[in-house]
Every structure is written in structure tokens, then in C-alpha cells.
Design goal:
16% strand, alpha/beta, 8-stranded parallel sheet, single chain, TIM Barrel
Length: 274
């Protein structure tokens, strides 16, 4: 049997209880379809600690650490200190999942922005890229990113990286995509690009730069077609790649090669075996 083209799931949540019973098998299944690396994301202090533990446990798992906007209500400076300490671990490759959320409205926007700024500044100090959550918050998030790139990134270790962050599960328009590129960000696409009724997203995806894109599952969420509504897992990043190959009218192997090369460079994990 031919070896499948290598893929990277740039965004998942392997610490969640959804994987408690079969986490070993989930990681193994991903490897079987060519997923050479998975980046599991923290959303608060506890899950960030769990992400680091998982990255220590599984050779193909890396960690991002951070505080999600919907988990930021009780944010205080000691939390940021803990995130900074965790970020020193060599298996930590990003600050995330951080950002803004105006869908759930669990935390006032002003508070979310304060927490986001603290973590953006931390990423600039440490030279780690950021993984950004954006749900119905395009305008305030882009305003924060513009200011950060203008005021905090220059002179920081991030200037040594080709990209400073990724807009996870991108849902903006093409103008937003272009501004993100111009600011030094790349984009992530997940299961929704496989949904037949996601016509606008699929139409936009045809025009995105394939060399500034990472694949993701957001597992256990956003399972792709034909598994929509089921628990997602990293092996299903393959279906995202297949959908993009169809939309771009290119071979699957090309999508795998382009997005895997981008993810390796973005996270600084070029030492991975192909």
C-alpha cells in the first residue's frame, strides 16, 4: 500500500472528554491516513496544561497554550504568568486559542479585548505565532491585529517568522483574507468547507492562496461531510484536503504538500519526518 501524502491537523482539542475513552486510537488512526502532526489547543489554563501533557505523551502531538475569549471571564494576571511558563516548553508551538467572540456573548467585548491584547503582547515577547478565534467579530479583531502588527511586532522575535498568526476556521470575505495576508497572517480551513450548503465559504475558498493556508479539524467539533454531526477527529482533516483539491481542481497530493509545508514552517516543526 502506498504511503499517504503527509498532512498536519493545525487545530484540534484532544484534551476534551470526547476523546477520553479512545485517545490512543484517535492518534493512531490519524497517523494511518498520513497525519504526521496534530496541534492541540488550549482554551484556558487547565486545558493548556493538558495540551502540554498530551504533547509530551504523543510524538505526533504539539501544543498551543492560551485563553479563549469565551473562557476569559475570570482572567487575572496569574493566569497569563502560567501561560507564559507553559509556553517555554519545547513542544509548545503557538499561543492559542485566543481571539474575540460576539456570537455567544458570554463575556463583554471590552474584557475580551483586554485579554486578547495581553496574550498578543505575550506572543510578541516570546516570538510565538498566534492562533486566532473569530466568531462574528471580524471588525474588532482586525482592528486589534492592525494595531498589534504596527506597534508590537516590530522589533520582536516574531519578525524572524514568515507569518505572525493564523485566523482559525476562517469565515471572512476575500477582502479580509487579503488584509490578513498583508498583515502577516495565514488562514485555516476546517470541516465547513466540505458542507454542500456552505456555498459562500466554498466559493471564497477557490480564491484563497493555497500557499498561505493550513488544514484543521477543530476536533471534536466541525466534522466534515459525510460525518457532519458526529464527533470529529484529526484523521478527518483528510476530507478537508480532498474538498480543497476538488474546489481548486488540483491533485490531492498537491494540497497535502502545500498545506503541510506551510504548517511545518508556521509552527517551526520542520524536523518532522515526512
Amino acid at each position: 500500500m502506498a504511503t499517504p501524502p503527509p498532512l498536519i491537523d493545525s487545530h484540534c482539542h484532544l484534551d476534551l472528554p470526547h476523546f477520553q475513552e479512545d485517545r490512543d486510537q484517535v492518534v493512531a488512526r490519524a497517523r494511518e491516513v498520513g497525519v504526521i502532526a496534530m496541534v492541540t489547543q488550549g482554551v484556558d489554563v487547565a486545558s493548556s496544561q493538558a495540551a502540554v501533557t498530551l504533547a509530551q505523551t504523543y510524538p505526533s502531538v504539539y501544543a498551543a497554550v492560551g485563553i479563549h475569549p469565551n473562557d476569559s471571564a475570570d482572567f487575572h494576571p496569574a493566569m497569563l504568568q502560567t501561560i507564559e511558563a507553559l509556553a517555554a516548553h519545547p513542544r509548545v508551538v503557538a499561543i492559542g486559542e485566543i481571539g474575540l467572540d460576539l456570537y455567544w456573548k458570554t463575556t463583554p467585548l471590552e474584557h475580551q479585548i483586554r485579554v486578547l491584547r495581553e496574550q498578543l503582547d505575550l506572543a510578541a515577547r516570546l516570538g510565538l505565532p498566534v492562533v486566532l478565534h473569530d466568531r462574528e467579530a471580524h471588525e474588532p479583531l482586525m482592528a486589534e491585529l492592525r494595531a498589534w502588527v504596527r506597534e508590537r511586532v516590530p522589533g520582536s522575535p516574531l519578525t524572524r517568522r514568515p507569518w505572525v498568526g493564523v485566523l482559525h476556521s476562517f469565515s471572512g470575505d476575500l477582502a479580509m483574507a487579503q488584509e490578513a495576508y498583508d498583515l502577516g497572517f495565514i488562514l485555516g480551513l476546517a470541516g465547513p468547507v466540505t458542507f454542500k450548503n456552505a456555498r459562500e465559504l466554498r466559493a471564497r475558498a477557490r480564491h484563497l492562496d493555497p500557499h498561505r493556508l493550513m488544514l484543521e479539524t477543530d476536533a471534536p467539533y466541525l466534522s466534515p461531510h459525510p460525518y457532519r454531526g458526529q464527533r470529529n477527529e484529526p484523521m478527518r482533516v483528510k476530507w478537508v484536503a480532498e474538498a480543497l483539491a476538488t474546489l481548486w481542481d488540483v491533485p490531492y497530493a498537491d494540497v497535502a504538500a502545500w498545506t503541510t509545508a506551510t504548517a511545518r514552517t508556521f509552527f517551526g516543526i520542520n524536523d518532522l519526518l515526512s
